[in-house]
Amino acid sequence: MSAETTxxxxxxxxxSVTIPESLDFHWQHxxxxxxxxxxxEGSDQISKxxxxxxxxxxxxxxxxxxxxxxxx
Length: 72
Description:
- By secondary structure, this protein is α+β, with helices and mostly antiparallel strands.
- Helix content is about 35%, strand content about 15%.
- The protein has helices at about 20-30, 50-65; strands at about 35-40, 45-50.
- It has a two-stranded antiparallel ribbon.
- A hairpin with a 6-residue loop joins strand 1 and strand 2 (about 45-50).
- Helix 1 (about 20-30) packs antiparallel against helix 2 (about 50-65).
- The longest helix has 15 residues, at about 50-65.
- The N and C termini lie far apart (about 45 Å).
């Protein structure tokens, strides 16, 4: 079964899940599925960003904005 036909797991849609919780949910349950699909400018090549790649990028950005305590 390809990623395009694999059913996605969905978090609760009643407003009880925060954005960070939603990102973590998809990272755990839909890691290899595409979150974003786009055509590269100037070509016909399709690029895909998976939930795992997006989740990792969000975590890196969050740690740059608000670093955790130093581990000394």
